Amino acid sequence: MLVAKEAASPLTVPLSDGTLLRATVFLPETDEEKPVILQITPYGRDEATERGEFFRNHGYVFIAVDSRGTGDSQGEFVPFADDGKDAYDIVEWAAKQSFSDGQVATLGGSYRGFVQWSMQKFSPPSLKSMIAIASVYPGKDFPLRNNIFVNYTMSWLNMVSKAGKGASYGGGPWNELYLEQKNNGLAFSELDKLAGNQTTEYQTWLQHPKYDDYWQGFVPNADNYRAINVPILSVTGHYDGDQHGTLLYYQNHQKWGRPEVFDQHYLIMGPWDHGGTRYPKQVLGQLQLGEHSVLDMKQVYLDWFNWTLKGKGKPRYLKGKISKYIQKAGIWHASKQLAQGRWHTLYLARTKRPELSASPSVLVDADRRHSRYVYDPMRKVSAPSAFDLSGEAPLWHADDEKLVFDSAELSEDLVLSGRIQARLWLSINVPDTDFHASAFEVCPENKPLLLAFAIKRARYRNGLQKPEMVTPGQPFSLNMDDFNYVSRVLSKGCKLRFVVSSSSWYHQKHYNGEGAVAHQTAKDAKVAKVTLWHDNTYTSQLRLPVLETVPESYNGAFPLTPKVEKEQ
After folding, report:
1. Quick one: which of 298, 410, 367, 281 has its CA closest to 53?
2. What residues does 133 pair with on adjacent strands?
3. What is the mean predicted confidence (pLDDT) over 406-417?
4. What is the spatial distance between Cα 129 and Cα 53, in angstroms, rounded to a whole number?
């Protein structure tokens, strides 16, 4: 029995296999039993001190736990492998403690969000509520998206491994390492050797370059979703690197969960990057987000737990299943579904230059049926010097390494809310390469503003589990339907820009060979000559999710940070 009444006290949490985890408990100034809120983290439990004190002061027991093999906990940390079962054990242990009223909730973002979803594979009976923020979906958004690994795969593993404890996973030194790999023609698989840390799961991950049983085993299946019986709050952002995962968990729950339970699954989507899903800011790079975008997230969490654990009133901002922020309009609105409005189609075409047209091309002139670019994997690249949503950092693409399609100036405002889709007809002279597509808003006297992006590897054009090399020279269709969700007013007088290339600083380099991309080197390098078709036979197009008007605002329902309130 815990008798210490300090604000924060150490705890030892036993797992069912005998492993001991270290934790810190924050107890309210009362002997009454209270609901318990858990945060399980591989990043060191001290990160949760402020959050623990907040909930302690509002009548909850808060426990921050070091994941197995991290911080002061025993065992070996194998990313994604043990988190779900360990979380089950921690929840059931917490429910039986003398300070607990038997109700346990979970909270956390990024990897900590994944932990909560992985726990659903085991259905802990004492779990009564959860808040999953910017949740990683293994194999879908990290360490690879559409079977393309991200640069920081190795740097993240280094950070959370024992050898890399306390290390960062970004910044100058890592950029220099990525440059060494990319510009010297080395294999992506050599990053652990270059980093001096070969003790991680890096090579294991690289052995699974497609979405196979290995990745699928870390997350709930259809039966697990049907077994969920707790209210859930999901949170993500327009620029969140784990938006893809957060929405996939939400949609899977909608597809397979019991309707009466999914009815208590809510989603908040703001104009935030990954960190902003927990700590919103009014400015993101050159983007001004508006004062109503800066929610008081601690109050949001408290309102949710007061409703789901203490029976207090339902928060006013849960007016609809989904709360979305519309950039530039500066408003929050409610909807029942992710998909809204209608599709507005623009066609890729070429007159004097590539353009986005309101009508499909009927041109048959040979030089206007297609546009072309080249991708030379041995051309030197540079690292970004700053965070930039304009696509100008880094601007290392040469003019002949990308295609840029601009629309005409908008004759009226256009309200986007949903996922952009692209269907491209392509042919290449190599068996495989990658495709990176980005959509921008371009306004007079302003930098282009990134709306959303998507990536796809040609060999996976027919499915993430079905690699098929391309027949050189033969046109094929590439559907890119998982752009990040965007919600923004595009202003009258601005243009829409669509950019297609075959490389990105932020992802592994493809040398355009047939073998496993992670193991390709300069010896496999081939220059890819890409033809993008846009004629009356091969109609490449961009589909925009459009609302007829800006929806009704309910900004007043959300709690804003005290700083924003003072500025009003």
Report:
1. 298
2. 109, 235
3. 94
4. 20
For 461, the token pair is 């054009």
Cβ neighbour number for residue 159 with a 10 Å cutoff: 21
Contact between 110 and 135 under an 8 Å Cβ cutoff? The reply is: yes
Give pLDDT, residue 339. 86
The Cα–Cα gap between 94 and 502 comes to 50
Cα distance between residue 181 and residue 169, in whole Å: 16
Beta bridge partners of 553: none
Residues 332-344: b if buried by 16+ CB within 10 A, e if exposed: bbbbeebebbeee
Residue whose tokens read 């709930």: 220
DSSP 520-559: --GGG---EEEEEE-SSSS--EEEEEEESSPPPP-GGGSP
Prior bond of 143 cis (ω within 30°): yes
pTM of the entire predicted model: 0.94
Average pLDDT, the chain: 91
pLDDT digits (tens, 9 = 90+) for 230-267: 999 999 999 999 999 999 999 999 999 999 999 999 99
Lowest mean pLDDT, pick from 258-262, 272-276, 345-349, 362-366: 362-366
| Closest C-alpha to 551, from 338, 334, 268 | 334
d(CA 220, CA 215): 11
Q: Which residues of 101-111 are buried (b: 16+ CB within 10 A; e: fewer)?
A: eebbbbbbbbb
* Tens of pLDDT, residues 458-471: 999 999 998 999 99
- At residue 340, the pLDDT reads 84
How long is the chain?
568
Pairing mode of beta strands 144-145, 100-109? unpaired
Q: What's the pLDDT band for 163 if we cut at 50, 70, 90?
A: low
Q: Can you read off the two tokens belonging to residue 62?
A: 């808060």
Residue 487's nearest CA partner among 550, 445, 436 is: 550
Give the angle 504-508-511 at the CA atoms, nearest 5°: 90
Cα–Cα distance between 298 and 278 in angstroms, integer? Answer: 9
| Contacts of 501 by beta carbon, 8 Å cutoff, 6+ apart | 373, 375, 397, 401, 402, 403, 435, 436
- 234: tokens are 């999901």
DSSP state for residue 313 in the 8-state scheme: P
Look-up of token digits 């049926």: 369
Asked whether the predicted pLDDT for residue 390 surpasses 70, the reply is no
Are 500 and 542 within 8 A, CB to CB?
A: no
Q: Count Cβ atoms below 10 Å from residue 63 Cβ, excluding itself.
A: 28
| Type of residue at 239 | Y
